[in-house]
Design brief:
The complex is a heterodimer of chains A (about 300) and B (about 220).
Chain A: H1 11-41, H2 47-54, H3 61-99, H4 102-117, H5 120-134, H6 145-171, H7 175-183, H8 188-219, H9 221-224, H10 231-242, H11 245-276, H12 284-290
Helix pairs in contact in A: 2-3, 3-4, 3-6, 3-8, 3-10, 4-6, 5-6, 6-8, 6-12, 7-8, 8-11, 8-12, 10-11
Chain B: H1 2-5, H2 8-41, H3 45-60, H4 63-73, H5 83-108, H6 112-120, H7 125-162, H8 168-178, H9 183-212
Classes of the chains: A mainly alpha (about 300), B mainly alpha (about 220).
Amino acid sequence: MTSVLYDEPGPRARRRARIATVVGLLLILALVAVAVRRLDERGQFERELWAPLIDPSDETFPRVWELIGQGVVATLTAAGLAIAASIVVGILLGTARMLTGRAGRVPIVGFIELFRGLPVIITIVFVWRAFEELGIDIGFLPGDDGLWYLVIGLTLYNSVIIAEILRAGVQSLPSGQREAALAVGMSERTTMRLVLLPQAFRVMLPALISQLVVVLKDTSLAALVALYTETLRTGQRLYQTLDNPIQVLFVIGVLFIVVNYTLSKIAVWVERRLSRSTTTSGDAAAVKAAGGAGSIG
Amino acid sequence: MEAVTENLDLYWSGFLRSLGICLWAMVGSLVLGALIAAFRVSPVASLRAFGTAWVNVLRNCPLTVVLFFMAFGLPEIGINQSFYFFGVAGLVLYTSAFVCEAIRAGINSVPAGQAEAARAIGLTFTQNLGSVIMPQALRTSVPPVGSVIIAMFKNSAVVGAFGVGRDLYSVGRDLTSAQGYSYIPVLLGVAVGYLIITLSAGALLGVLERKVAIVR
């Protein structure tokens, strides 16, 4: 293995690396052993703590997984609605920002900077409390009010990010694309609609998938403020009854990690495919960076 | 608006407390993130595997789940700390994975020819690392690490909502629930507090980026 940091290692360096690998492995194993012993001492491997989660013959098992299933569906519903709404609003915001003149842009840029700078939890709580206080009734929407407060809060934040991703996507296209479209007599709007946006969407795809990871993770903020019963809040209720927080949180963590890890891998795969394909396409990695700090959310 | 003006001192102390969370978590996640990044680029296979696992677990797990695990899981095995400690520690663990990836991207962006040239003129490994690779890698890492840190400042509100007490978020909660002020002005005050932190951090980062930018 060679990298910018070190050359192809010779026999001595390889031996040193092998020794260090074994020592490192022992250290890691020692760390794991300490943790496992601690868990064991405190009886965290007791059957009764794990059985409701992993033993199908346990009497609470079906009910526990039914509840977790409902939680997962609730998480996916909120994330799906939020990402769909964010894409629509984000495209409108992004295009509006690119097509309006200097003065008309000011409120749009202000809106974008405002919601990009606010912690998303504050946005969610603000939407929730302000709607209640102003007496805005969202009862006509199907499902819990909590779901919609969460979705609106997430949409405000993520649509702004998507608007920025879109702008980066358009900017990453070769300038000849726009110039050629204008030269054949298309208006700015038509150029945007027929030439720039369709190409930008292609480059945006990996960034959009990464944003989906952010949204999925952020739905769990609802559990923190007891707004909506999604996966984590379901888990919280379960471990309060079953008295096994470590086990339940472990299972929920694994659920999130598996789904999000798969999504991230898909994003990387799509990005590779795109960068391999046509020569006129923009730079997917640069567009992804415009979304901010990866999927930190 | 008197909800805010009457309680400016509360807001101010909440602001300082939130800023404290941000700064502690920044120091912690930069140190830990740099260490994990060193693991991930080292020639030692076991450390590389550890670093990869660390990043994939923490990056794909919601911060809320990490915090719940710290505060409600760890006491089960006899680790008892304040919510403040658990909150900052959870934020550090979570952010370290993102810092690691940003630093690693910086290191990988240095063209291999740089190191090869340095080796060709006879620089040792340490000289090569210290005066050729790292100066370039760190400068390239500034924008991505900076945006991770700004995102982390925003995530500090999650730690606040989690219940560390006396921070900006908690001030807002106390004013509305205990003292009965209406939500809109109080939350606007909280939002302004966070905007001051994130927007000025963004401006600082902009200055820093211009100072250290390398044109390739």
